Amino acid sequence: MDKNLIIDVVKNSIAEELEIEKGDFLVSIDGIRISDCIEYRYLETNEKLELEIEKKSGEVWVFEIDKEMDESLGIVYENALMDEVKTCQNKCIFCFVDQLPINMRSSLYLKDDDSRLSFLTGNYLTMTNMTDNEIDKIIEYGISPIKVSVHTTNPELRKKMLNNKNADKIMQVFNRFRNTNIEIDCQIVLVPGYNDESELSKTILDLYTLSPVIRSVAVVPVGITRHRQGLSDIRGLTQDECRNTIHAIKGIQKKFLKEKGTRFVYLSDEFYIKAKFELPEYREYEGFHVLENGVGMVRVFEREVDDALKKIKNRKAEKKFTVLTGSLAYDYMREITTKICQKIEGVVIDVIEIKNDYFGRDVSVSGLVTASDIIKQRKGRLGANVLIPDNMLKKDENVFLDDIGLIDLEKELGVSVKPVEVNGYSFVKEIIGV
Asked: How big is the chain by its Cα radius of gyration, in Å?
């Protein structure tokens, strides 16, 4: 890309002081024409830099800038990546995007596999489409942490699971990061009959040999929707398989904890809930590096609620709320809201489980609950003060996965619906009206 369109300038920033404006273009930094956001972020951290800007008029301005290290220039670009998104070249047997029904938000059908998005937004990449130059750039610029979907270190099995002949060299790629300051968080989507049991243990042990470069491994159960026509014949994990996996991982964690003082590998909450086992203690998650994978989310939310309630004394609030949630979190939300009701006199909270008919009953997380299921299951049966977790909605827009807007949902239900951040402090504040 020759130049990058500036769409906004942060107030009180260096860019505003220099009279850089919306509609101007970034041409180069230190004579380098920026190819992507990673290069820009790396060069932007310099204490001294030369910034070349093309004004809307076509005039070119060159600035010599002295600033604090890591101080942002305050420029917002039209394309956050400053380049095209690299799309996924795999055809994974468990791909959730391939299991989506039609008529959902169009953006949901985009399958990215981009290292820059891994750094910027925490997306997971497979590294099957990365060039040596791209790996060199990650190392040179110190891009960290990065998130990698591994699934298995068995070369032939990985090619089979990802349906990509280039998927067999993941350990060779990881070895290039030895003796660097890069940190890698890995993900394993567990598919029964493929990468479970002995294959799972071997993969974890292989990755462990690369710690501390590989900082953690998260294991999540495969997600199966009812829209798998024409796809690989795979299934979800049974309760017994979840229990066996928990026992196996607990043994591995004990070994690692003794050797290096870290458990290294963690299971998502779904394993414990499906197995009907108690979740690990808060401290056992060691900093929650892979929270976005549903690893420790319940414990974090529970701790936040407990901390918020400790600060409340003699509070009364004559209010009734209805909280809508997915099947996975239902029992825990009932326990947590009971604590709130016991602490705050007069508050009544009714937790309602929304079963997932849109994707299928095997899909149970709140973030995949759709407006159509809420309407079908609760229309005419809800009172005032309806709360939903905001992860049911698009990040920057009040639209559900089935492309139904929040306003349309409220019209159908005949009640107002308030999205609340998935955060225990925010949830308690909403209840007490602060």
From this structure: 24
Say whether pLDDT at 305 is over 60.
Answer: yes
Q: How confident is the model at residue 423 (pLDDT cuts 50, 70, 90)?
A: very high
Distance separating alpha carbons of residues 420 and 410, to the nearest angstrom = 15
Calpha distance 432→434 (Å, rounded): 6
Assign 117 a pLDDT band (cuts: 50, 70, 90): low
Looking at residue 175, its pLDDT comes to 95
Task: Tell me the C-alpha to C-alpha distance, in Å, between residue 153 and each of 3, 70, 105, 220, 255.
Answer: 40, 36, 34, 16, 20
Report residue 11 as tokens: 């107030």
pLDDT band at 177 (very low <50, low <70, confident <90, very high): very high
Q: Which long-range contacts (CB under 8 A, 24 or more apart) does 155-161 make?
A: 157/194, 157/195, 157/199, 160/93, 160/194, 161/92, 161/93, 161/94, 161/191, 161/194, 161/195
| Cα-based angle 111, 358, 301 (whole degrees, multiple of 5) | 75
* pTM higher than 0.90: no
Q: 423 near 304, Cβ under 8 Å? A: yes
- Classify domain 4-77 at the CATH topology level: Pdz3 Domain (2.30.42)
What is the rounded CA–CA span in Å between residue 52 and residue 175?
38
Classify residue 128 by its DSSP letter: T
What's the one-letter identity of residue 39? E
Q: Give the start-to-end residue ranges of the domains of the chain.
A: 4-77, 97-295, 301-432
Most confident segment among 12-16, 72-76, 369-373, 429-433: 369-373
Question: Read out DSSP for 380-420?
Answer: T---S-EEEEGGGB-TTSSBBTTS-BHHHHHHHHTS-EEEE
The pLDDT value given to residue 192:
97
- B/e letters for 384-413, b = 16+ CB within 10 Å, e = fewer, are ebbbbbbbbbbeeebbbbbbbebeebbebb
Fold classified for 97-295 = pyruvate-formate lyase- activating enzyme (3.80.30)
Q: How confident is the model at residue 33 (pLDDT cuts 50, 70, 90)?
A: confident
CA pair distance 115, 204, nearest whole angstrom: 22
Contact 402/103 with Cβ under 8 angstroms? yes
Which tokens go with 429? 């504040």
